[in-house]
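Usage

Read records sequentially. Each one opens with the input sequence:
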Amino acid sequence: MRIRPILSTAALAFLLAACETKNPNGMPDQPPGQSSVQALPATAPKPDSAAARTENAVMPADTSVAGAWLLLEGALRGHDAEVLNQLIDPEFGLWILEQTGAIPLVTRVAKVGAFRRATQNLPLFSLDKQLMTCPQLRVMHHLPEADCGLQTKQNAGFAQSGCFAGPATAFRRLDLWPSATVKGGTAAQGKAAQGRTVRTVLQTRTGFRFHFAKSAGAGGRWRLIFIDLREPCMA
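and closes with the structure output:
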């Protein structure tokens, strides 16, 4: 009986290597175009050490504040305290700014599920009924200021309507601490958190502003630092 030639050692090693090649999830590689998930580039930044304590390690770092805003919007609409807690900076925490008469009220929130808005005694997740639905954030170099002569039921006094993202410069300059009532923390802690803010998301229907900072390190994630629930044209 004639015996067929045996594969060479090199060819056999090549076939074994091809069969054992797997992607990072432990599944065999798929041909190009058939994968439903795009792999991250090899140079994608990794979360910093502070972020690693509170985040899912497989989540890529945000490249813009829009990613953090989408997570925040989804958490508020879905009443998902777990996701919202992941957006909070582990060092500076989450601060909520409200207006009670002529005195600003600043509260450091320890548990988002337990927080109640001072003026209406409503939970934080009640914001879902006031959020605007916007396809995407409109990035601006300077966020618009309210003009109370333009105020309507659908607009808090802004010439333009929508969801805007821009620098948090105006908020960082806001000197509210001499007259503010502070709960859950100190004015010094709140001022330090305020100084960390980098980007602001504005919704013109209410005038509410959401202020974000970025965690330290090259792979730092965007974090929610302040929520400003003051209406620009309060009577």
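Summary fields computed downstream for this record:
- The first strand starts at residue 94 and ends at 100.
- Helices lie at 9-20, 49-52, 65-78, 81-87, 169-173, 187-196.
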